[in-house]
Amino acid sequence: MTSSESPTLAAAGSGIPADGGKKPGAPLRRVFAIGAAWMSAWWSIIGLLLAPVLPGHWLPVLLAAFLAALPLLFLGRGFAGAYPSAAVRMFIFRPFWYVQMGLPLIASAGVLGFLAGAPFGSAVSAGRWGLLLMAAAFAVALVAGYAGSRWLQVRELDASFPDLPAALDGMRVVQVSDLHVGPHTSRRYLSKVSRAIQAARPDLIAITGDQVDDYAPDVVHFAKAFSGLSAPLGVFAIAGNHDVYAGWAPVRAGLEAMGITVLVNDAVELVRGEGRFWLAGTGDPAGAGRHRGRGGEAAPDIARTLARVPAGAFTLALAHNPALWPRLAQRGVHLTLSGHTHHGQLSIPRLGWSLASPFLDLAMGSHREGSSLLYINPGTNYWGLPFRIGALPEVTVVTLRRSPAGQGFVQITPKRSEFAYP
């Protein structure tokens, strides 16, 4: 479906409500009040510093603030159930989020400049310079972040286990996560992702949640981009928090209509040669929260997820939120593939730090607990803003290995990374 086509037509015959599964009556006044207070505070600082030297003084500042706040009306319509087109998301939502990210940085730089200049009698002048320098730095970062959001890398890892069935040695699991597909997502980029997946020669393809970008009809665009995926052992997907927000039932129906096997609190036994293993998929914590009405069965239930898995069987789990991994590890799951964190879309990999690190215990990279391993994919696309620095989008290729004789521990070993070119 192109951006000009009706979402009603796209949803017809697919079981997807044209309203995206969202219910009207959201607390719009609260959203407006919080948004207005947030923006007013930062615009006031900017105005106090710049208005005296601008033509018209406060008039251009107030006009800029008004234009920056207008997207709240469209966001309100989205909360009320309207399906936003590609144009609305790109030219209204995206500038709005750019402003929300830049306002506090630019205004704070003005305040710091003001304080630094105060002892020298040049507080206002130093504050203005702080504003301008931060605005310039912010613009450069946006350009770099946009380039990073399109710099797709294919990362190969070996996951070694002493008890891996011999027939599974060399099995390749290709993981993508957090694709957040919508009508605004670059078709060229999604095509590059699809080609990178297939070029990795997967035995199994794992899509670990957040297939859509907040609205259930987005699954139509996901299907157009990835309906050609195939692997000998199958293509599997699980629920992510944004799939729940969108309305899990229609999103699931759209994925299954593509031929994808959806695992939510369930597991299946798979066979490769003479080797057998279990693939499990969890629900997502968003399904147990205030979005439960749209999440249905998507709330995580680890006991139910592993109920059919025999004790000691080699098990691979897909869990969108890595916070579920400790409970999976306790139940003997060998390898868990997660996403969700995006590595904050800003990270310093060599330091093991990301923008998500201050908020999450399991924010990025690989982790080991006993005989269980976790890998957190940084996301294969972006959410909100096309911005990635350090945390590049990734197609992950995990090759299962049987540990050498005498090596009794499990580990994830990075092998190589290469960029996926068109």
Written description of the protein model:
- The protein has 422 residues and is of the alpha/beta class.
- It folds into 2 domains: 8-147, no CATH class; 152-419, 4-Layer Sandwich (Purple Acid Phosphatase, chain A, domain 2).
- It is 38% helix and 18% strand.
- The protein has 13 helices and 15 strands.
- The protein has helices spanning 7-11, 28-50, 58-69, 71-79, 86-117, 123-149, 187-199, 218-226, 241-246, 248-257, 292-295, 302-305, 325-330, and strands at residues 153-161, 172-176, 204-207, 235-237, 261-262, 266-272, 275-281, 315-318, 335-338, 347-348, 353-354, 365-369, 372-376, 394-402, 411-419.
- The chain has a 7-stranded mixed beta sheet. A 6-stranded mixed beta sheet has the order 6-7-8-9-13-12.
- A hairpin with a 4-residue loop joins strand 10 and strand 11.
- Helix 5 (86-117) runs antiparallel to helix 6.
- The protein is elongated and about 80 Å long.
- Mean pLDDT is 89; it is low at 1-26.
- CATH fold annotation of the largest domain: Purple Acid Phosphatase, chain A, domain 2
Strand content: 15-25%
What is the typical, i.e. mean, pLDDT?
A: 89
Total helical segments: 13
Strand order of the largest sheet: 5-4-3-2-14-1-15
Number of domains: 2
CATH architecture of the largest domain: 4-Layer Sandwich
The count of β-strands is 15
Q: Any idea of the CATH class of the largest domain?
A: Alpha Beta
**Poorly predicted ranges:** 1-26
Q: Please summarize the sheet with the most strands.
A: 7 strands, mixed
Radius of gyration: 24 Å
Helix- and strand-based class? alpha/beta
Superfamily (CATH H level) name of the largest domain:
Metallo-dependent phosphatases
SSE order, one letter for each helix or strand: HHHHHHEEHEHEHHEEEHHEHEEEEEEE
Distance between the termini: 23 Å
* Proportion of helical residues: 25-40%
